[in-house]
Each structure stands twice: as C-alpha cells, then as structure tokens.
Amino acid sequence: MAEISAKDVAALRKMTGAGMMDCKKALLENDGDFERAKDWLREKGIAGAAKRSGRAADQGAIEVLVTANVAAVVELNCETDFVAKGDGFGQSLAALTTLVVDDGDTDLGSKKINGETVDDYVKGLSGTLGEKIEIGRVFRFETTDGLLDGYKHLQNDRGTVGVIIELGGVDRNDANARAVAHDLALHIASAAPRYVSRDEVPAEEVARERDIYEVQTREEGKPEQAWPKIVEGKLNGFFKTVALLEQSFVKDNKQTIDAVVKSLGPEAHVRGFARVKIGEE
Q1: What is the CATH number of the domain that holds 18?
Q2: How many structural domains does the chain have?
Q3: Spatial separation of the C-alpha atoms in residues 169 and 244, rounded to whole Å
Q4: Region 23-47: what's the mean pLDDT?
Q5: 166 has which bridge partners?
Q6: Closest by alpha carbon to 137, among 161, 121, 155?
Q7: What pLDDT is attached to residue 181?
Q8: Angle formed by the axes of helices 118-129 and 87-103, to 10°?
Q9: CATH number of the domain within which 92 lies
Q10: Residues 44 and 65 grouped into a single domain
C-alpha cells in the first residue's frame, strides 16, 4: 500500500474541496493514485463534478488584447500577488501580450522584445523583481471575417480572468453582434465552460463521467430499471456544465447560449473561445 503523506492529502483537498479525512481515505483506497482518488470521491458524492486542479504557482496576472483581426490572452506567473500588482510586472505583461498579437505565439521564447529574446527578458524580469517569473498559458486567435471580442476581470489591481472569443457568420461591424460577443465573453468568464458544444467533449471523458454516474446511481438505491434514464440525466447535467452552448445565459437564465447566438442569424456560430484564470489549470 502506498504511503500517504499529509502533503498528498492537502493537495487532493485543494483539487476537490473534500474534507481531509475523506481525501486520506480516497488516497488509501486507490493506492495513492490522485486521478482514481478524485473519481472515488465523486462516486461517493463527496467531491464536486466541476472542480479543477489548483496550480502550484497560483499567483500572477492576465492580460487581454483584441484588435479587428487578432485577439490574445496571456498569463504571466509569479510567486506573490504583491509582485503581480506591481507596475513593472503589469507593463511587462502588456508588452508580451502586444508581442503575441503582433508577431504570433509560435516559438514565443525565441521572439525578440526590447532587443532580447523573450526567454532572456523573462529571466531578467525575475532577477529584477526577486521572484520566479514564468509565462503561463497563451492563446491567440486570428481571423479574416470573424468577430473577435474579449474580457478581462480585474481583482486587486490585476487581471485574474481573461477570455477571448470568436463568432462566425455575423457582421463584425454590427453593433448588436458586438454587444452579444462581449456578453458571451463575460458569460464565459463567469460560467467557465471548457468546450463550445458537447460534440467537442472527448469520448473518453464522456465515458469516464458515465462510469461515475452509473456507480453513483447504483449506490443511491434507485430501481434498476430507472438507472439508464437517471444516468442520461446526469450526463446532460454534465454537458450543461462544460459545453458553452448548453449553458444558461448568466444575464437571462431562461435562455441558453445557443439561443443567444442564434438570435444573431441562421449563420451565427461560436468558432472558439479561450478562458484563463489565475490559479486554475
């Protein structure tokens, strides 16, 4: 049997929100395997379905920049929120985001900024600020005919959530379409979908969810003939959590996001989105 340390228990607790004793038991029951332990907690109804693993380096800031044809969101990580809120850190993040918009995100570390490579620039920033600094997640959308928008949520003088979104099949100069695109960006920041539609959810993830719901349903003591319908209902609930188009619109929960998008016309659709939150993977 694997040796379970207090650090392991605390890490699982951070990932799932479950109690310390439940986390210890989950790890013991699953020989220290974190993924199996998370599933075990969910099967027992102890951990939430949509919990995400916390990052070890959970400080930093996020910047969002949108032009007519390009949108980017960039995460820059550090060790403390004190550094993340500093002017020098914010200015460096803004410069990196502008670089991504102007020159792309491929092989970012070797691109030049202020006469040196990005890798050297970030190392120099780390030396200046006295903390480990590293570039986190970077997303860039470029379009010829789509409508781009973005949103940055500010908290304690730094961006903590960043979203970019692209709509297709709409007139990018239409004021209503632009307003809807921005509303969708705000919605994504709040509701945290992971996919545009249920069709994008990997088959192995759906199968894993189904297995968990089947175990839950059996342990709930429901009649066996009702199990398939109950499991399908749970799966539909899962899709409403992770698939943008199936979510209820945060500004009007009587409408789905799919209905909001279709209100822009028969060709309107979400081509893609990216969401980054400090402290989440």
Answers
A1: 1.10.8.10
A2: 2
A3: 18
A4: 84
A5: 148, 272
A6: 161
A7: 97
A8: 170
A9: 3.30.479.20
A10: no
Q: How many CB atoms lie within 10 A of CB 268?
A: 18
User: From residue 252, how far is each of 9, 163, 237, 259 by CA, in Å?
Assistant: 40, 20, 18, 11
138: its two tokens: 């970077």
pLDDT bracket for residue 264 (50, 70, 90)? very high
pLDDT band with cut points at 50, 70 and 90 for residue 222: confident
At position 196, the amino acid (one-letter code) is: V
> Quick one: DSSP state of residue 147?
E
Which residue, among 94, 91, 113, has the nearest Cα to 103 in the 3D structure? 113
Distance CA(180)–CA(263), nearest Å, equals: 9
pLDDT in tens, 38-81: 888 888 777 654 343 333 446 999 999 999 899 999 999 998 88
- Please state, as a whole number, how many other Cβ atoms lie within 10 Å of the Cβ of residue 152: 21
Q: Which of 236, 262, 253 is nearest to 191 (CA)?
A: 253
Q: H helices of the chain, where? A: 6-16, 20-29, 34-43, 81-84, 87-103, 118-129, 175-191, 203-219, 227-242, 257-262
The string of pLDDT tens digits covering residues 110-119 is 999 989 999 9
Token pair in block for residue 135: 């570039």
Say if 211 falls within a structural domain. no
Tell me if 6 is assigned to some domain: yes
Q: What is the dihedral of CA 189, 191, 195, 198, to 10 degrees?
A: -160
Considering the domain architecture, whether residues 87 and 138 belong to the same structural domain is answered as yes
- Direct distance between the N- and C-terminal alpha carbons of the chain, in angstroms, rounded to an integer: 29
Whether residues 133 and 65 fall in one domain? yes
Range of the domain at 63: 59-196+248-277
Q: Which amino acid is at 144?
A: T
